[in-house]
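User: Can you recover a sequence for this backbone? Please restate the input before giving your answer.

Assistant: Of course. Working from this structure:
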């Protein structure tokens, strides 16, 4: 058997194996460290108050890699990243936050990519109240 025939056979077998694995639902994406509902722990729920320093949208592991909205919250202890909800939910509900907004966040602490972040369950701004997740960590807003 010539070298080119051997390489072609190896390539063909590899391609068939990949197609079989994809057909079985094997996911080749980088594993997500944890999903929001899996992160929930009532013992870690806290109330944090501060001012919105910045709002960021980026692919988030808490939203299973979906673009999510995040608030960088300036507190007396420092800046804390707060995970809100997937961007599509924020847009569909016309929810937005801006730098300078004074908010109170009820949520639970979670380690996300090595950072101590906060997964928002509920946010208050003035007399407005936004509930993002139930006690089990599941998104509450219409998707």
């Amino acid at each position: 058997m010539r070298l080119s025939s051997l390489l072609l056979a190896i390539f063909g077998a590899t391609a068939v194996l990949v197609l079989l694995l994809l057909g079985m639902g094997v996911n080749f994406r980088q594993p997500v460290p944890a999903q929001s509902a899996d992160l929930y722990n009532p013992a870690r729920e806290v109330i944090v108050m501060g001012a919105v320093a910045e709002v960021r949208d980026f692919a988030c592991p808490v939203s299973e890699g979906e673009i999510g909205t995040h608030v960088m919250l300036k507190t007396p202890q420092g800046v804390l990243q707060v995970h809100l909800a997937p961007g599509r939910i924020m847009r569909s509900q016309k929810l937005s936050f801006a730098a300078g907004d004074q908010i109170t966040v009820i949520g639970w602490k979670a380690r996300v990519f090595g950072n101590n972040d906060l997964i928002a369950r509920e946010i208050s701004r003035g007399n407005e109240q936004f509930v993002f997740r139930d006690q089990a960590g599941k998104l509450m807003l219409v998707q």
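That completes the design. Confidence is low (pLDDT under 50) at residues 25-37.
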